[in-house]
Structure formats: structure tokens, C-alpha cells
């Protein structure tokens, strides 16, 4: 059976709701936080580093120098032992997976979901703006964070964002240059502000803003990209390869501008915003359209048309009828229950991740809590699906 026929058969058999396998991603520049639920010995993967991330509903390949060809790509549980990635399924049957209208204007799901789990703060870095990412054939990487609860916050639960406002206002951009040239310290952080990672809250971060995420276990929703420029040399007692500064820079630009090329990729106005916290901080907001007695939904990712996401909480014995505007994927974070008749359970890797295709998502789906504790799950949506109904932060100072 070819891929197109396989996907059509699978969607019919599973009523448009597919189970997905976890996609584990290794990183070699930071120690793991060991909070992803793996066995202790499973975190160390040799020359690849350590398993530090779980990608969810992913059609994006991890951009690692060493690793399997399908690292980062989610696989569908077929039930018959066959292997198919979610990306291959979307490519083979875009209209069935995403809806015909959406598929006519979108080539894939256009977003990436991950849990990142590091034992040290992620080094100060930026994701290139669209204009700069396109120069190397990549996408920009706007992203948003939600800090997960009921787990350790780690040793440094605070995130550095942007630069001190005077640097942007006085155009003192080259104050950062010596740290990039010398490449021997973490002192670049003294030109940035840190914000506490509060569980149940988060931040929206557009591309072009340097940042150094803290050690809270973070559920991240972002554009479909793995583009970045590392700007901090020393982290967790280790000097990071300077090649990561230039990872997504054209060779000619690197040779002509050297370290200054990165200064030209920073969105200085946004990075030096006096109201950075107020303009980027995310707190859960009720989803008025889905209010019902059986549970409660809140927007946790918003302020952009590029992606959006919700948190759904169902009390013991509760039943929630879910209707959405397009394809989405699901992570079950707490509790157990049934999703459209399929058993779901947090922490069980074969029962905690789903993909709900367009045809099923746009019709009532019954989600039931069959356990003694709250059932908590997250929904993740790609570009444009909730445009016009997801909240927008009222910007201050602009």
C-alpha cells in the first residue's frame, strides 16, 4: 500500500484522531534536566549528547550535526508495525489532514511544539528575523513559552530577554561586540534583564530578540524552524563552539562582517522595549466560545497569527465537548480519560499524544475524565487557524 492510500485508510480506521509517538531530540551543548519521564540511562546518547527535548506533533527535522535522519520527526502509531512520519502523512494527504481550504494555502502544519528540559540555562542567543533567515533558505522562529507545573524549576528559573533600553535608544549596539569577538565568557548577560519563570504563565517572543531561557520545564510553541545564532560563549562551565554563532549566516556575510553580522540581525527596538514584560507576558485567558460545565479552556499561547494554543482542564467525572477551527495536536499532561473514545493517560508515551485532523477537529469531539484527578491537556494550532479569536496583548509604549 502506498503512503497516500495508507494515510486514507488510517484516517478512516481511527476516525481522524491519530496517536503519535514521542520524538526525542538530543543536544550536546547543555546538561539534561532529566524531567521528561525517561529512564535514567536513556538520557545519555553518546556523541549526540543528552536527550533534552521532546518534540510533539512535529513535521520538523532537528538540525543536529550528529543524529538519526528522522530526529525530531513525529511518527504515527499505525497499529500494524509499519512506520510513517507525520510529515509524510501531511505531504501525502494534505487536504484530508489539514482541510482542503487550509491545504491550498499552507504546505505543512507550520508550527513546532517541544518540551525542553535543560539542567542549565540556555545560552543567550537569537532567532533570525524572516529577512535574515531567508538568506540561508530557512524560516524565522517566533516562539512562546508556557512553564509547566508539578516538576522542579531547576537551578536557574529565570529568563534573560533583550538588552537594556539605553543600548537601543542610544544605538550603542557595539557594546555587545567584544563578547562575540573574545568568545570566552558569559558576561554578555549583564546587558540584559532576567524575568522569573512562573509556572502556569509564559512569554511570547518574536524573532530578532536575544534571550537566554531559564531552567523551568518549558512547553514551547513556535514557528516551524530550528534557526538560531548563539551569542554566549561560556555556559554550564563549558565554552560552546563559536561555529554556532554563525550557524545560519551566509559565508560571504561572515567573511565580510565577521561578528558584526549578528548585530545587524537584532531587532533593537523590540529588544530594548521599556515595557518588555507587559508587552510579551502571557497569562491564561478564558476561551469564551467554549464555556461549558464539563471543563474549562484557556488560551495560553496567543498574540500572533503564526500559532496559538489552549489548556483544557476537566474535573473528575467531567465531560467536555470540543469543537475547533482546524487541525491540532494534543499533549496530555495530567490525569487520564478518553478522547473521542480513545484512552489517554499522562506519562504513558503510547497514550499521551494525539493529532486531530481537520474533519474531526471541526465536529464535536467528546473528551472524558475517567480518573480521580483533574485531566489536563494542551492543544496546539498552526498559523491562521485561530486568527481573530485568539487574544492580542494591548501594547504599551508604542
Q: Shape from CA axes?
A: globular
| Rg, alpha carbons | 21 Å
Overall average pLDDT: 96
Number of helices: 12
Helices and strands: which structural class? alpha+beta
CATH C-level of the domain at 23-90 and 109-282: Mainly Beta
Distance between the first and last residues' Cα: 56 Å
The major pleated sheet works out as: 7 strands, antiparallel
The share of residues in extended strands comes to 25-35%
Helix content: 10-25%
**In which order are the strands of the major sheet placed?**
1-23-20-25-18-17-16
> In CATH terms, what is the fold-level topology of the domain at 23-90 and 109-282?
Jelly Rolls
**CATH homologous superfamily designation of the domain at 23-90 and 109-282:** Jelly Rolls
CATH architect. name of the domain at 23-90 and 109-282: Sandwich
List how many beta strands DSSP finds: 25
Uncertain stretches of 5 or more adjacent residues = none
